[in-house]
Amino acid sequence: MQPTSINVILADESLDEDLSRIAKKVFADERISFDEGVVLYEKAPLGYLGGLANHIREKKHGNKTYFNRNFHVEPTNVCLYTCTFCSYSRRIKKREDGWEYSLDDIMDIVKGYDGKPVTEVHIVGGVLPQYDVAFYSDLFRQIKNHRPDLHVKALTPVEYHYIFKKAKISYEEGMQLMLEAGLDSMPGGGAEIFDEEIRDKIAGGKCSSEQWLRIHEIWHELGKRSNATMLYGHIESFAHRVDHMDRLRKLQDKTGGFQTFIPLKFRNKGNEMSDVPESTTVEDLRNYAIGRIYLDNFDHVKAYWPMIGRSTAQLSLAFGVDDIDGTIDDTTRIYTMAGSEEQTPALSTEQLVKLIRNVGRKPIERDTLYGVIKDYTDEVFEDDNKYRGYLALPVVN
What we know:
This protein is an alpha/beta fold. The chain has 2 domains: 6-61, no CATH class; 64-375, Alpha-Beta Barrel (TIM Barrel), CATH 3.20.20.70. It has helices at 6-11, 17-27, 34-43, 46-61, 103-111, 133-146, 157-167, 171-181, 196-203, 209-221, 238-255, 281-294, 305-308, 310-316, 349-357, and strands spanning 64-68, 70-73, 78-79, 90-91, 120-123, 151-154, 185-186, 225-232, 258-265, 300-301, 323-326, 362-366, 372-375. The chain has a 4-stranded mixed beta sheet, with helices on one face. A 4-stranded parallel beta sheet has the order 7-8-9-10. Helix 3 packs antiparallel against helix 11, helix 5 runs parallel beside helix 6 and helix 10 packs parallel to helix 11.
């Protein structure tokens, strides 16, 4: 599963006319259209997509691959909403099967990382009435008072929409309150798929696509940054995927506030969509590559390694991906409960560094806003004479 060199693609006289035109546009730094995005899904072979995506990735970042040291806090997995794709949440009628942390519980988790070189706490969870504006405002303030340097990346528009509606305040008022309480950035979750018909089938009742985008837009207008996701590989079409990315691209043109695009693979374990087959590794890599090609105004594309596994994450670094998230430290259950590849999602910094180096990339520890903390390219570990990687893949220049 290696990408084809873009020079080979451009020189291929037998290449499909549509694919040849798209390759020339990519090489010339020209934006591809919606229809061309669909063509990539329908026609483009894996090697071709990897060649174009890797060209863009290396033009933006060279061989650098980013990671950070982070941990997750999930206040609850009990939720008012009943998304058919979700294996994580428990309905209120079965709340005894879930967990509901108090403010003190969460602060105990945060304090458990005192003295450890983590730079980010990632907070998302289910939606319940007690987790309201006052709760999260207090939580963010307590975290900042306890550890001012810890970056708080918290809550999706799904959660914000609910708590602001419950408090009878506008999105603008609510996001300003969160900013004042200590919120530093927003994760990209809750986007699912933007097509309204498909979204209603798999995530009915949650905030709409328009509301999801508007909350991010307001956050960007406050001068802050966020990420964006797309749930793929379920009942959506290729056109739905391109539509999703197109809406993100348009908002990014307007605000410039998105940092990273994170495609999320649908997993079919333990949910109401277990009859839907999961996408293959080849389709996963194709999807990363097309995301990198289409979202020309996004700086980064991330592969969330706990969801797809370490080997596929390594492969993705040759298909447009330049970020594989962080150490996680076994603090998230969102994907393990859905049957993800990693049932104990924790890697040490050394393991992450070696995972990246073993495929010829340069490991760069970053903070949440992509400030460089340390270049691990030449870092020497005690057991460097032992091969602990999962895959050796040459980098295509």
